[in-house]
Amino acid sequence: MRTTSRALMYGLYDEFQISLKCPHAPPNSSFSICHAQAAFLSGVCEAMLCPLERVQVLLQTTKFHDKFKNTLHAFSRLREYGYREYYRGFSVILVRNSLSNTLFFTLRDPLKQRIVDLPQTSRLPVSLQHWIGDFIAGSLLGATISTAFFPLGVIKNHMQAKVGVKYDSSIQVFRDVWQLRNRSLRGLYLGVHLNFTRSLVAWGIINSMYGILRRALAPFEK
């Protein structure tokens, strides 16, 4: 699920850059309206994977362990409730993905350039400069953005951990979660430190590997 999601995120962003004729970054900055639009659209498309996230949440929910045996079985059982059931929580995913992608891709290249331009980094071999810049930029942005949008993930999980019941709006679910977490931000961000640590490592690896592959494949691009 996560591999497919990230592949779509990066791949569609590149495709939308081409379609929208965004200035190539680098040497141009990705901090532009055109790049923000490309990132936003990639997030919208990525949200179409909602059924996979839906099933993932159900399989991770304790009360459904006896009801759903595996991914295919969960998809089959959900069909009994109608196709709308696959997209429970879609609105929250759409907001989270589109906005987080916009922030990540518009800030990624400027932040990387700042890191590469540091005196400590500029003395290193060029390939190592790129790797360090990609890793640190991906780590910082991924961890920060995922932390900022953490409450949306909590709301989404509460919406998707239900089957065959009334559809509540995201606002109503937020109110329910807010009450459940004792009406405190600390309660709303319960578990965020684990999410931050995971994102710090995962996004650094993802972004640096993407950079390595892009540079390796650059000679074969038209």
UniProtKB/TrEMBL annotation:
Q: What keywords were assigned to this record?
A: Membrane, Mitochondrion, Mitochondrion inner membrane, Repeat, Transmembrane, Transmembrane helix, Transport
Q: Does the keyword Membrane apply?
A: yes
Assign the protein's first listed, main location to one coarse class: mitochondrion
Q: Where are the Solcar repeats?
A: 29-114, 129-216
- PROSITE patterns, per database record: SOLCAR
**Taxonomy, superkingdom:** Eukaryota
The family database entries (InterPro entries) matched by this protein are listed as: MCP_dom_sf, MCP_transmembrane, Mito_NAD+_Carrier
Record localization: Mitochondrion inner membrane
Q: Which Pfam families match?
A: Mito_carr
Report the GO terms under cellular component.
Answer: mitochondrial inner membrane
Membrane topology of this protein: Multi-pass membrane protein
| GO terms of molecular function | NAD transmembrane transporter activity
Q: Which family does it belong to?
A: Belongs to the mitochondrial carrier (TC 2.A.29) family.
Q: What is this protein called?
A: Solute carrier family 25 member 51
Protein's organism: Caenorhabditis remanei (Caenorhabditis vulgaris)
